[in-house]
Amino acid sequence: MNLIREIWQSIVRRDPLSTDKGKSELVFLNVWLHIHPAKVKKEHLRFKYTFYLGFITFFLFLILVTTGIALMCYYRPYPPMAYQDMKDLQFVVFMGPFLRAMHRWAAHAMVVCVFLHMCRVFYTGSYKKPRQFNWVVGVLLLLLTLGLSFTGYLLPWDQLAYWAITVGTNIGGYAPLVGGQLKELLLGGHTVGEAALIRFYVLHVAVLPSLMILLTIVHFWRIRKDGGLSRPTWKLRPNKTEALVTIGAPAEVAPLKTVAASTDKTYGLMEVVTGKPIFETVTPEEEEDAVFSYPYAFFREAIALMVTVTGIMAISFFFHAPLEELANSAKTPNPAKAPWYFLGLQELVSHSALLGGVVAPALMVLVLIAIPYLDRNPSRRPADRKLILWLFTFFVVANLVLIVIGTFFRGPGWAFVPPWVHVVSGAE
Amino acid sequence: MGRKLPQFFFALSMLALVLIAAAVWQASTPSWKNYQRAFFQLEAQGEPNAVTKAAVLATPPQIHQILLPGLQRVDRCTTCHLGVDDPTMKNAPEPFRYHAGLGPHIPSKFGCTICHGGQGLATDVKDAHGNVPFWPNPLLSSDYIRASCGRCHKEGDVPGVPELTEGRRLFETEGCHGCHKLNGVGGSIGPDLTDEGASHRSPDWLERHFLAPNVVSAGSAMPNFHFTREQARALTYYMLSLTNADMGSYYSSMRLIPSPEYGRQLFVEKDCIVCHAIGGTGAKVGPDLLGVTKRHSMEWLDEQLVNPQLVYPGSSMPEYDLEANVRTALVAFMASATQEDAQEILAHRSNKLTPEDVAIEAGKRDFARFGCAGCHGTELQGGVPNPNAQGGQVPSLLHVSDDYTKDEIIQIIRDGKVPPLDNAAGPTPPLYMPSWKHLLSDEDIHQIVDFLWSMQQKAKDSW
């Protein structure tokens, strides 16, 4: 028994979790957990404020990495074997359909959650100082998520994949000057073929996930450095006391300085510094409200993880990932549609190639990135931000409406066909 | 909720475990395992012995598949249709019944979907039979199955399928090419029919379409040709047989059918008649092959064709490096070969087989078998370096008849010869002609010399 305890102690090296010291050591002695603070404010954990969308997105990414690596064992990125491998997953590989469905649904869910997460950050004004740059990182992560989903879309090499990527890359090809070259670089040719498949595969399993991991690290690090998880600061009670904190060496030596705690307090074990901190400060009163990350934050995170995993598993158990016919460049489906998240763009392209293929996406990305620098209003209180909240809502709704039209209301020849009207495909 | 967090987490974890268990259960109980269990029970019924019965019942379930790389096809139909090549299953219920009347089209070489359609990759009934979305070739009904013969038998009469011949004839004579392209030839008013067999259209649709194009396909530009029902069916057969895939040439190039006809063709190609007689006609170097399949088992004959020395040490039959299929075809031919076959083969040989030819052939084999070619070259060209021998190399044998008589050469082979030195003071050349009299019979030596002289002739001819 003693030996077991000794081994366990050599691994965790902390006091029992029943003690406050143990609770804090659990965090800062553990390389994986120490991205958390030892203590968090209760507001940080309020579900109705963040909906844990960031966590859920990250957990979806973990599911995707895990199932993706398993799928790589069964996949050859070369037509038509790629398609045969899909069939093998469906019919021969143990739990293959479940595995593929989890990857598929988690990928779609991640696109949705990244978008919802962005909306939440916008509506709560969490991109404002000091978090401006983290918003930019977030927009890049959104683009990477779309890129991963888009590159993964081609890999099954069925009709759905082939034509969605053909349409998607054609939209990209409308960009002036570089569009054609970019499309050629991406496809390794003028049309989707063997070269495109291997390029998309490399992007999907190596390049984009690596970038994703790197930027996710930056994103998380910045959250911690910018004052922890976002919280509704405008709802906090104003400080009643102006506590003074003495900075300097213990007792015998004269203190270096005495400052007001609410504004000038800073943490730093490297050196004691003075000056205004860049992050949101925590007053002593607030500190009394703080709780240890263990168990309050960790259990909530673990529950978010379990909800994500069980949710994706439940969906995958009942709904298998679609697989159409083998890709055939001679048989164009009518209409050929891009992946659903690009259908808004395709809808715009159907009205104007320049507008939908170039102006709209370029403007969207540029404005999204620039938002924290364009919005000069320092207040995060919704009542002070009415105009911009309406503008953003319009942007979101417009996107959704376009995607819904493109997905459900477009039939052969991109004609307007409501989903409840059944079109009989005519004679050739 | 704060205090209930651990409980909530625990409940969710249980739910996750249940889901995983459900997914594992779903994956471990595919329907094909039930079919295999039923088949093993059927098989066990026929077993008299309790031990064998138990062994049959204990066969682990596994997916069976026929790989057809040349066609990029994998057929897993035999996972459930376990009795297709087992004649004892002649009266078994489906899906286990023996597939009679296949002739040379054995399932292990042809798979199933090439004739039947369906989705060979699938392992559950609905998907495998192909009546599912996104699979273009569902199982063909028995009314139309023979249309598939035309996928490989692209020309000429297909035995037993007069519809196909009639369909092809109609297509040519009724002017279908005017509107339809077929293999790059034809008009473009109607759709290209090159790959029509792989389209989604059902045989039923096609047949009704030929009877009244406008009724089935509103607004179709195709005129009504007032075909009879039989003609419509013939054309439907033809349409179903049209495919882009070059299946016929795949099978002929692979020579997958070990038929006696193919065996005979091989017998001619390999010139077996120069050593073997059939019913007394042909050469006498090897044994007469008439009734050889009655004297030896199939396995023995197959072994003999793989490695003659192993089965029958001292056999002068060379190793031909034949594929299994080729060997089966040769044995099939031998089983049916008659003296008339031998006479016919001999009559069609470009140069008539004389006793001298037989001796030369035997000599050529001995020349190769005893390693003469190692120094003198496979073409008798010589040229292997032999320092301090006259000329510095092993002599060519192409002009040996100019310098020696046959008897002198026989003497040299029998007793060996040390090459004359280039420089009398120099070292002994490493290579010399050994004495062969203990290894070769006089007959062998005569045959080798005959072979050498036959090559002389050739060398002179080519001057």
Low-confidence stretches of chain B: none
Mean pLDDT of chain A: 86
Mean pLDDT of chain B: 83
Instruction: State which percent range the strand residues of chain B make up.
Output: under 5%
Helix proportion of chain B: 40-55%
Strand order of the largest sheet of chain A: 1-4
Cα-based radius of gyration of chain A, to the nearest Å? 26 Å
Oligomer: heterodimer
Which CATH architecture of the largest domain in chain A is right? Answer: Up-down Bundle
The biggest beta sheet of chain A is recorded as: 2 strands, antiparallel
Which structural class do you get from the secondary structure elements of chain A? mainly alpha
Could you characterize the architecture of this molecule?
The complex is a heterodimer of chains A (428) and B (463). By secondary structure, chain A is mainly α. Chain A has 3 domains: 1-29, no CATH class; 42-233 and 294-414, Up-down Bundle (Cytochrome Bc1 Complex, Chain C), CATH 1.20.810; 240-282, no CATH class. Chain A has 16 helices and 4 strands. Chain A has helices at 2-12, 20-28, 47-50, 53-72, 81-91, 96-123, 132-154, 159-173, 179-187, 194-225, 261-264, 284-289, 293-318, 343-351, 353-374, 386-408, and strands at 39-40, 244-247, 257-260, 291-292. A two-stranded antiparallel sheet of chain A has the order 1-4. In chain A, helix 4 runs antiparallel to helix 6, helix 7 (132-154) packs antiparallel against helix 10 and helix 8 runs antiparallel to helix 9 (179-187). Chain A is globular. Mean pLDDT of chain A is 86; it is low at 262-270. A two-stranded antiparallel sheet of chain B has the order 1-2. Chain B has helices at residues 5-28, 31-45, 50-57, 107-110, 113-116, 125-129, 149-152, 162-173, 203-211, 213-216, 229-241, 247-254, 260-269, 292-295, 298-306, 308-311, 324-336, 339-348, 355-369, 373-376, 400-403, 406-415, 442-461; strands at 66-68, 73-75, 277-278, 281-282. In chain B, strand 1 (66-68) and strand 2 form a beta hairpin. Chain B contains 23 helices and 4 strands. With 463 residues, chain B is an all-alpha fold. In chain B, 46% of the residues lie in helices and 2% in strands. The longest helix of chain B is centred in the first third of the chain and has 24 residues, at 5-28. Chain B is extended, with a radius of gyration of 34 Å. Chain B starts with a helix and ends with a helix. Chain B has 4 domains: 32-129, no CATH class; 145-250, Cytochrome c-like domain (Cytochrome Bc1 Complex, Chain D, domain 2), CATH 1.10.760; 258-350, Cytochrome c-like domain (Cytochrome Bc1 Complex, Chain D, domain 2, Orthogonal Bundle); 357-461, Cytochrome Bc1 Complex, Chain D, domain 2 (Orthogonal Bundle), CATH 1.10.760. At the A-B interface, helix 5, helix 6 and helix 13 of A face helix 1 of B.
